Amino acid sequence: MIEQIRFDDGAAYARYMGQWSQLAGDAFLEWLALPTSLRWLDVGCGSGAFTEQLCARCAPSSVVGIDPSQAQLEHARARPALRSAELHRGTAMALPFDDSTFDVAVMPLVICFVPEPATGVAEMARVVRPGGTVAAYIWELEGAGFPYESLHEAIRGRGLVVPDPPRPESTSLEALVALWSAAGLQQVETMVISVQRTFDDFDDYWTTVLGGASVAVLLANMASEERALIREQMQRTLHADASGRITVSARANAVRGQVPRAPLEASTR
To answer: Which of 45, 71, 95, 192 would give a disulfide with 65, using CB separation of 3.0 to 4.6 Å?
Structure first.
């Protein structure tokens, strides 16, 4: 039986992916370059790493986050910077908001986990006002852009199956453009985001991946000898600098589009 990717430990996920999310999110928000005082919706807000970032960088008038994981939301609610944010439990497939409620809807590192990505994008477009922005970024899974791809390769090399998100094919630039266009969004643009993260040493890296959503259960359930072999292989694969620090690279794809303006509004501009 293949383990499903689980998001039921907010603190472990924050260590595993939170910093990665913020590294990519910084470039993403700089690229969006949106004005202040907007109403933001963060779809799949998770532990709140990106939500916190947009609050700090974008001076929003309001921020609403939604995520299906109660554990992740509890971690997000514990962040002092998110005290004024509204955080709700729910799914991207059926956003519990009226039409045209927000100025911006973003989906950070989530699109491949939505059972029907087209529905999720259409829902974001529905709740954003005409002229507003719908955007996302996601690791390029089919192009080896995932931050822990080398670990996944090591596990697969031993004949084991690493759980995949439901829709990994939705992470390419071509797929994102198709999804945004199918939702009727206009002025669709994309960008490739390349980031690096440095771990203090190999123990820092290994402790981090032991809490990873995609492999934590798999590593915990395997025989200790098997796990030790994978650990040793990763130590050989990851190159440390003179201080023992390990730097890992990752790549994400970003997309943005605009909700069509009402005909009368468009004709007067």
So the answer is: 45
